[in-house]
Amino acid sequence: MLMCEQQNIIIPDQETLQIDQAVATLRKAIYNCTESIARPEPGLYTFSQPLMAADPLRWLARQNLFPRVFWMNRERNFTIAGIGCADRIELDEPGPNRESFERLVSTLAAKDPSTRSARYLGGFRFNNQEKQDGTWEGFPSFCFVLPLVQLTLEENVFQLTCHLRIENGEDIADKRAQLLDTLDHLDTAENSEDDQLPEMMQITCIPDRELWTDCCRQALELFESGAMEKIMLARRTFLEFSTGFSPMLYLLHYPYPKNSTYRFYFEPEKNRAFISFTPERLYRRNGPVILTEALAGTCMKESIKGSDDLASEMLLNSEKDIREHGFVKDTIYRELQPVSSSVEMEEKLRVLQLNRLAHLYTRCTATLKPEYCSDSTVLSLLHPTPAVGGVPREEALQHIMHLEPFCRGWYAAPVGWISRDSAEFCVGIRSALVNSGNTNLYSGAGLVKGSDPDLEWEEVEQKIGDIMAITSHTA
CB–CB of 31/148 below 8 Å? Predict the structure, then answer.
């Protein structure tokens, strides 16, 4: 048994084990370790066992402890599937987004050194000053959880990990019993049948097409008056089903597993979850170095009936899309300059290819100055990007609240994971909010001067196409 004293990380066996063997090994290590500590120091005790290959998503779908969380990065070389809650950081009160970001980071920083490498998964509201409604019950200003048990895949290494957090005055025997009970009730079966989604009964678009056109025209008038340069308007598509079902089915039946998208899943209570299949990275941080990108400008492959090469050619020769992309690119570069010792923005435009769509994108790498090396700084600078908000930013937030007939909640907000030394957040677009037998799909389109409301409506339709394929049993 290996143990890192400073961070209380225990590795019971360095051999890779089958999952049922790993559970038994972890159980024994947890019991022996906690029995030998008469008065444990407050902090986090992490027990991690190397695993033979396992599917984190299918493992998660078989478990019945909540919350359930899932994260897969766009490169598909890092996945976390977690159940239960060893620790939670959350806030549920209105205020500027900046205050939410600062509260999360300061709370995490105040924890003892044993939490340094622990990754908390969760998300924020898009606009914490927006009036909330019951649609987003269970999704507060922000919520981040450290799973009680998690299965991870990182750079081809599988791990089954347990987190035991002891606060001042807590009885270690009670906390141990909770964790051991969770291990006892894990489903370690290797195969399981996947259910299908039930029959879909009705689809309602909010706004409907007439109101959407009117909202777009109001936005175009703002451009003509000089009040705005760009705005992203969204639509909520409400799906009603014949019976309730597990939101996990959306992840299990995602039809394009090789698509260059993040997968984010947050299910705070049974059958109520927020899911995002987003291509857009907000940023990744490792120490003072951050990687971010501008992603804006869209080609709908179905409408051009063409190949990836044709989609790239059309995007790279579209004045409207290049102009829309330029707003995002220039904003990111300008906002990172004051807080960074270096900012490297690619000159060449790239094209990110997805199954139905292609997007213009440009990568950016920056090194933060020591006094600004904080996720709260980066979040405050980058969110919302012009791709999901607009230019100017604050005016866009106000116009979005006025024009959109629904609450965005966690849609288009930063979602991902954070630790003391590193973090990665994507932008929670191409998303669904599931509540048992109902699903709200969220997607939007970026408007600039010259945008056509009918084409923007079709773009929104294309952006929910992957999820709609699941509901139609065409996956």
Answer: no
d(Cα 249, Cα 143) in Å, to the nearest integer?
23
Cis peptide before 198 (omega within 30 of 0): no
Long-range contacts of 30-34 (CB under 8 A, 24+ apart): 30/162, 30/164, 30/176, 30/179, 30/180, 30/183, 31/176, 31/180, 34/164, 34/172, 34/173, 34/176
Q: Which residues of the chain have pLDDT under 50?
A: 3, 5-6, 474-475
- What is the chain's alpha carbon radius of gyration, rounded to the nearest angstrom? 23
> Burial of 146 by CB count in 10 Å (0-12 exposed, 13-18 middle, 19+ buried)?
buried
- pLDDT given for residue 38 in this prediction: 57
Contact 286, 422 (CB under 8 A): yes
Q: What is the pLDDT of residue 112?
A: 87
Q: Is the full-model pTM beyond 0.85?
A: yes
Crossing angle of helices 453-463 and 209-225, in 10° steps, is: 120
Exposed e or buried b per residue across 348-373, where buried means at least 16 C-beta atoms within 10 angstroms of its C-beta = ebbbbbbebbbbbbbebbbebeeebb
Backbone angles phi, psi at 199, to 5 degrees: -65, 135
CA geometry: angle 326, 353, 433, nearest 5 deg: 85
CA end-to-end span of the chain: 45
Structure tokens at 194: 């996947």
pLDDT, position 474 = 39
Residue 53 confidence (pLDDT): 94
Q: Are strands 9-11 and 43-51 parallel, antiparallel or unpaired?
A: parallel
Q: Classify residue 309 by burial, with Cβ atoms within 10 Å: 0-12, 13-18, 19+.
A: exposed
Query: In the prediction, which pLDDT does 34 show?
Result: 74
Helix, strand or coil, per DSSP, at residue 288? coil
Q: How many CA atoms within 13 Å lie on the side-chain side of 431?
A: 27
d(CA 141, CA 164): 26
Predicted pLDDT at 305:
78
Q: Look at residue 5 in the predicted model and tell me its pLDDT.
A: 46
